Amino acid sequence: MPSLVSAISVSVVDDDRMLLDGMAAWLGSIPDLRLLCTAATVDQLLDTEPGRADVVVLDLLLADGSAPVDNVRRLVETGRPVLVVSVVPHVVHGVDVIRAGASGYLTKDHDLPSLADAIRTVARGELAHSPELAFAWSCDDRPDRPKLAPRERAVLVAYASGMTLTAVARKVGIQPTTARQYLDRVKAKYCDAGRPTYTKLDLADRVREDGLHRYPSASGDDAGQSSSTLVP
After folding, report:
1. 128 domain residue, yes or no
2. In which domain, by residue range, is 207 found?
3. Whether pTM exceeds 0.70
4. Which of the residues in the chain have pLDDT under 50?
5. Same structural domain, 129 and 162
6. 46 with 125, same domain?
7. How far is CA 49 from CA 10, 55, 223, in A?
8. pLDDT (tens digit, 9 = 90+) per residue, 9-39?
9. Are 82 and 195 in contact (CB under 8 A)?
C-alpha cells in the first residue's frame, strides 16, 4: 500500500452535494487515495482546484447542461486523467467519452472498492474497464467504427502497444510483410470511415477509442475472443 506521501490525488465533479460529502468521508478512510477538490461543474473545478489531480472522477450528466464529451475533452486537454461515472448506463455516451479521452466509465451502482480500484487503474495510465463499457463497445455499430478481421485487430493492438513490426509478426504467427499489409488495411478502413489514421500514435488512439484494449492477448485466429479484464 502506498504511503500518504505518494497517495493518489482525486478531484470529483458532481452536482450532488450529498454525494460529494460522502466521497470526502470515504476517501478520507483510504490511505492511498486523497481528496484534492470537489466541484459542481468543470468550470468550477478548473477555477478552484489547488493543483492538478492525478484522477478526476466526473459525473456523466451535470445540472449545468454541459455536454459529457466536451467536459471530458476540457479536462483531458489540461492533462487530467478522467474516470466518468453515471447513475445509469448510457451505451452511446460510454463509447463517446472514451473516444474523447476518458480513461474509464463506471456506473454508480458499483461498490466503493470497485471505484477505488478504477481510480488506481486510471492513475497508472491504464484504461479502467467495466461491464457497462464492455457492453457499450459490443453494441457500438456506428459506421465510423470499421469492421476489422481478427488478425487485423491482433496486429493493430500489438503494434499500437509499442511492439516492432517484426515482434508483432512473430506474436501473431505471420511474416513481417504480411503484418505490414494488415496494418495498411487497418489504416485504409479507418480513413474510409472518416477517421484518418496514418502514424503509430494514430493507431494507438484508434485502439483506445474503440475499446480494443479488451483484446490484449489476441493473436492469430483466436483474436476475436474477448479477454477483457473488468472492474470487479
Report:
1. yes
2. 150-222
3. no
4. 1-4, 215-232
5. no
6. yes
7. 10, 12, 43
8. 999 999 998 888 898 899 989 999 999 999 9
9. no
Domain contains 144 = no
Give the model's pLDDT for residue 58: 96
| Region label for 143, one of left (φ > 0), alpha (ψ between -120 and 50) or beta (otherwise) | alpha
pLDDT value, residue 207: 84
**Coil, helix or strand at residue 198:** coil
Domain count, the chain: 2
Q: How far is Cα 104 from Cα 85, in angstroms, rounded to an integer?
A: 8
Residue 1: the pLDDT is 40
DSSP per-residue codes, 14-72: -S-HHHHHHHHHHHTT-TTEEEEEEESSHHHHHHH-SS--SEEEEESS-TT---HHHHH
- Rounded CA-CA distance 122/200 in Å is 22
Whether residue 131 sits in one domain with residue 30: yes
57 in a domain, yes or no?
Answer: yes
Report residue 94 as a C-alpha cell: 460510454
pLDDT of 138: 63
